[in-house]
Each structure stands twice: as C-alpha cells, then as structure tokens.
Amino acid sequence: MALFGFLRRTPPIRELKQLADFIDEQAAFLVQKGIHDYSSARAGPHAKTLLNEPKFVKSYEESRWRAFPLGLAMVGEMVEGVLRPHAGADTRAFLDEYIDLVLSIFDRYPVPEPVGKDAWLDARSELALRLDQIGLHPAKRVIDIPEQYVKRYFEMMPIHESMRTRDIGTTLGYLKLTLVNMHEELTKRMNAAEMLEKIRNASRAA
C-alpha cells in the first residue's frame, strides 16, 4: 500500500491544533530519524542486534527525549519564519503568542523518566529562551536554522564518543534537507496570513 502513498493528499492546516500537531510531529520526526539512522550507520552490519539491546534501547530513549526540545526549537523557528511576514508592525506581540503555542506542545508530555524533572524543566526554559531570541534577528533561511543546534544534537547520539567519527557535517546536511522539505510541505498546506490571525484571536480569547 505504501507504494501508492503519493496518491494520498495531505489535509490543509487550518486550525491551531492542526498547526501544533504539525510542529509536534515534525519535531519528533526530525530528531528521531536522525538518531536512528546515525546509530544504524555506525553499527553497520550489527545494527539490528544493537537496536534491540536493552542497554542501547535505554540510551536511545534518553537521546530522543533530550533531543526533542531541540527539534521543537528548529521546527518552531522554521514555522515562525513562514508566519512572521504577515505580522506587520506587531511582530513582538505575535512572537509572544507563538512562543506560548510552541511551549504548549512541550507541555503535552509528562516528564520523561530517562531525563528527570529538573533536566526537563531546564529544557523547557531553554526552549522558551531560544524561541524568544528569534525576534532579535531577521528570519533566517531555512537551511541556516540548524547551524546553532547541530553540535548539541550530535553530542546526544546514543553512540559512545569513541565510536563517533567526524560525521557532524553529514548530520547538519540531514537537518538542513529535512527542514527544507518540512518548509515546503507547510507552505503548501497552510495559509500563513489566516493562521497568524487565528493565533492572535486565540490570544485575545485567553
């Protein structure tokens, strides 16, 4: 059935919940696929065995949860760049409202056991700060967004440091390409001006 997947049309993103779901799903995909693919590549012919070892599964779970806030930051900045041109003179007010939306996605999840409460709350605070700093500069090109995150993300890979090669460039290329594809999908499925107005209306209602 997957062979005919290209015949299925993805639904438009018209509601705030749909946008939040998009950010959530894409952020998880961005970091988890990178972790899985890199781990498989480093394990080589032993990948299937490694990926099923309890010790590795535990490390993988910790890595994907620790990386999720980075995924939210990257996808969140990409989406913000699509919406910002429609904010007019109220860019700061829009950003504050948008930050609340992204943080509400983070808050969907209870504290992951492999991470712990203190580290999870620290990750939330860091995410809020990173999103706030988006407003300090013009919207970046999508391919430039991962630059500030790739080193931290690469260091979260569940592979012992001694086994890592200098693959950070490959990881950066993966993040860039995946974000570009997500950006293309978003712009096809969402009317940015209408969505921005819904973000503002939701803030007023609150």
Question: How is this structure best described in words?
Answer:
This protein is mainly alpha-helical. The protein has one domain (14-205). It has helices spanning 16-43, 47-51, 54-83, 91-106, 117-133, 150-155, 168-189, 192-205. α1 (16-43) packs across α3 (54-83), α1 (16-43) packs across α4 and α1 packs antiparallel against α7 (168-189). The longest helix has 30 residues, at 54-83. The model is unreliable at 1-7 (pLDDT under 50).
Q: How many individual domains?
A: 1
Question: Element order, helices and strands?
Answer: HHHHHHHH
Question: On the 0-100 scale, what is the average pLDDT?
Answer: 87
Q: Sheet with the most strands? A: none
Radius of gyration, in Å, reads 18 Å
Question: What key attributes describe this structure?
Answer:
mainly alpha, disordered N terminus, 206 residues, 8 helices
